[in-house]
Amino acid sequence: MDALPGIRYSSAILAAAGANGLDPAFLAAVAAQETGGPGADSGANVVGDRGHGHGLFQIDDRYHAFARTPGAADPAQNAAYAAGLLGGLLERNGGNVRAALSAYNAGSPNALGAVTTWPDGAQLGYADSVLRHYAAIRSEVQQRALDELPTTSADVNQLGSYAGQIPQVTLPAFTPPNWSFTSYASESDKGGGKLAATSDQAMAALVDPSDDPESR
Length: 216
Fold this sequence. Notes:
This protein has helices at about 10-20, 25-35, 75-90, 95-105, 125-145, 160-165, and strands at about 45-50, 55, 60, 115, 125. It is mainly alpha-helical. The chain has one domain (about 10-205): Lysozyme. It has a 3-stranded antiparallel sheet with strand order 1-2-3. A two-stranded antiparallel sheet has the order 4-5. The radius of gyration is 17 Å and the shape is globular. Mean pLDDT is about 75; it is low at about 155-215.
């Protein structure tokens, strides 16, 4: 069974997620938000944000030296870098997924982040939009696993191998917020988020202080 059905660069995402202790569907959801756009649950390897966002996870070359290297265009290296950032932000924020996602996008764990308008009219802040992608990807993974469950008694012993692939998760309801917020996020022009605002760029160092040119 394809562990991430319908997801481009799934092998790179799986490897990066495994190396950083992340749910592969969660990492794929971030890629979908960054370079897929609302309703598209698979990202793309592109340059966006007026040339500043690089690769599958749109690493910003204004704040990350990695984004200024050829490796940023390699999906495996791009995924590994993004997974490292997200893993560190999750640890820094005590496992709070929304806070980590907000910090990844806007530099602050309390920011709404780039607002995405979905085809059904829902307007979601960055974290909630990622979680909507995540719910869709997990649902597809679970359905594929169920479709491939054994149907004969002789295959019952195979059931155990599927248990870890269809975990039950409870995600929050997606209520469109009424706020508006412009972030410096490096989402692709093909994605759903707003482009950078100069006033927010000062928050960038919070994402990865060690990579801030001013800190060196």
